[in-house]
Amino acid sequence: MISKDEDQACLEIGHEASKKEEWIDYAQYCFLREKGLRKKAFSVLDRFISKAKGWPFEAKKEFVEWLCKKMDLLPQSHWGLFPTPLRKDLFLEVFEEWCNREPNDAEVFSLRAQYTRAPDYYKKAIAIDPWNQRARATFAHACIQDIWYSTHHLPDHFIGNEQDILQTVKQAREHISYLKGELKNSVEKELFGEEQLLEDWMTFKKGGTEDFVSWCQAKGGDYHWVKAFNRISMPIPRIFHPFLEEGPFETCLICGCGLLQPGVHYMIEKAFRGTEVIFEYAICLSCSQNLHKELSAESLHQLRRHFEEHVDWEERDRRLLKTSRGTCEPWLQHCVITGTPRDQAHAYHLIGHCAGDKLVLKFHPFMICEAAMVQMGRLISKKTRDALDNFTGQYLGMPPEFKEVFNDAPMLLV
Ligand SMILES: [Zn+2]
Prior knowledge:
Layout: H1 4-17, H2 24-34, H3 38-53, H4 57-73, H5 84-101, H6 106-115, H7 120-128, H8 133-151, H9 162-176, H10 181-207, H11 212-218, H12 224-230, E1 233-235, E2 265-273, E3 276-284, H13 285-293, H14 297-310, H15 313-324, H16 329-332, E4 347-355, E5 358-360, E6 366-369, H17 370-377, H18 382-396, H19 400-407
Antiparallel strand pairs: 1-5, 2-3, 2-4, 4-5, 4-6
Bound molecules: zinc ion.
The site of zinc ion has 8 residues, from strand 3 and helix 13.
C-alpha cells in the first residue's frame, strides 16, 4: 500500500479531479489507489490516458498543468498520483508539444525537466531565463546533495576529492545568487550546514591529528558529522541479520574479512520466497567491485539505465527519510521498480548497504520483486549471466529448483 500521506493526497486530488467531467477516470484511479486496488486502478488509468490522448492540445495542457501545480504543493506524496504510465504515455508527449508551442517560457521547460525526469531541460530553462527559480533551486539542491554525499560517511572517510567539492560549493552559491525570498533563505541554510562539515574536515586534515571525532570534541562538541551520519543510518535491523544466527553478518562471503569494524562498507542481499530465505550473504565493497569486473560493461549500463528510468532515488530518499523514524520498514514495503507491495510479491530480494554495525539509508535499502527481477534478467548478456551463475553456484549453492527465478536476478550489481 502507499503511505498514509500519499493515501490522503490521492483522496484530495481525486476529489478535485472529480469536479471536471473529463477527469472522472483520473479521479476514479486516485480513489482506487487509495483503497489499495492497484490492478483496477491501473486499468481505469489506461482508459483515462487513451481518452486524454485524443483531446485537443489545450485540454491536455490544462490537465498536465493542473496536476503539476498540485504535485508542487505535495512534494513528498505524489508517488500514487503520478504513476509511470501517466508520465510516459501522456506527460512526455504533452510537454514535447508544449515546449514547441511556447519556446520562450522557461517555466514550461523547468516543469518538463522535473515531471518527465529529464534534467537537461533545466539547462534550457536557465538559458531562456537565468532567474527561473525552479531550475536554479534544483541545481543548487543537486550541488548540496553532492557535497553531502562526499561527507556522509564521515568520520570514517571522505568520498572524492576535497578540491572538486569546493568547486561544487562555488556552483551552489552561484545558483543560490539567483534565488529570491524564502526559497533563497532555506536553500542557503541547507548549504551552510553541509559546508560547515566540509570545512571542519579540511581543517582537521591539515592539522595532522589522528582522529576526527576527538578533534570535533576538542573544538567544542559541535558534532556536525554525528548529525550527518546519524540522520542516514541505523543499527542493522533483524531482517538483515543471517536467518539462523544471532546478530548481524560478521564476515565477507568471498574474502572472509571482518565487517563490523567502523568504516567497513559492505552489501547484504537476502532472497525470499514467501517467508522462506532462499539465500543470503554479505560481501565487502572490494569483493563486490572485483565481481563487477567480470560482468559485461554493456549489461551494467543497461541495468543502471533501467534503474534510472524507474526510480527517482533522491526523491525516494527524501520521502523515506521523512517517514522512516528509526525503522527501515518503509524502505522495504514496495518493489523499487514496479511498486508492488512486498506482501503481494511471491518472491523478492532485499538489498542493504551497511557500514560497520550500521545500515546506511542512502539509495538502499530496497526491495525488488520477482517480476522486476525477470525484467532485469532480460537486459543482461551471456557473459554477465555466466559470471552470475558462477557466483551463485560457487558461493551460494543454490538449489536447482530455484535457479531459474533467481538467476534472472543480477542483484549483486546494484
Ligand atoms: Zn570481501
